[in-house]
Amino acid sequence: MRRNEISLRQLIVQKSLFVGIGLLMFIGTTILHGCAEDKPLLATESITNKLIAHTWKINRVSIAEVDQTALFQGMTLVFTASSFTSVNGGVVWPGSGTWKYTDETGKAIKRGDDVVVNLVEVSDAKLQVTLTWSKNTFAPGRISSIRGLHVFEFTK
Question: What is the SS3 assignment for 42?
Fold first, then answer.
């Protein structure tokens, strides 16, 4: 009987270990699953993360469908969560300013100077924005800004 008694005890211990390990695995999986269920980012949060991730360097500018990249040579744009700075943005992109989304879709921002900037493409590598500039601004000997639809394409 002693041998059966030991085998029965071993069987009970093995089953208890099996149940215990299974229970621990279930609890661990539940905890990990709960942690993985972070709320998805809102469209605006995702876009903001991409905007602030880089110093955006001008690639191409067209105004009224005419290449005007030379007017913005060396332009850069840097965003924070609520402001921007630009270099060589002319009067169209002031050296600094604030911005906020026009709505929760994140398809456009409104700068502090009331200019609405449409976010055509915002990716990890490319930023394309459009804005309509309503003024012609002339400086002696050269054009500072031209009225019309401006399309700015930036790369990181």
Answer: coil
pLDDT tens-digit readout, 50-93: 999 999 999 999 999 999 999 999 999 999 999 999 999 988 99
Q: What pLDDT sits at residue 29?
A: 65
Per-residue pLDDT tens over the stretch 101-113: 999 999 999 999 9
What is the pTM for the complete model shown? 0.71
Q: Which residues of 48-87 are buried (b: 16+ CB within 10 A; e: fewer)?
A: bebbeebebebeebbbeeeebeebbeebbbebeeeebbbe
> Domain extents for the chain?
1-38, 43-155
Contact (CB, 8 A) for 83 and 97: yes
Sequence-separated contacts (24+) of 127-133 with Cβ below 8 Å: 127/50, 127/51, 127/54, 127/56, 127/77, 127/152, 127/153, 127/154, 127/155, 128/152, 128/153, 128/154, 129/154, 131/92, 133/63, 133/92
Q: Which two tokens stand for residue 92?
A: 């169209």
CATH fold of 43-155: Lipocalin (2.40.128)
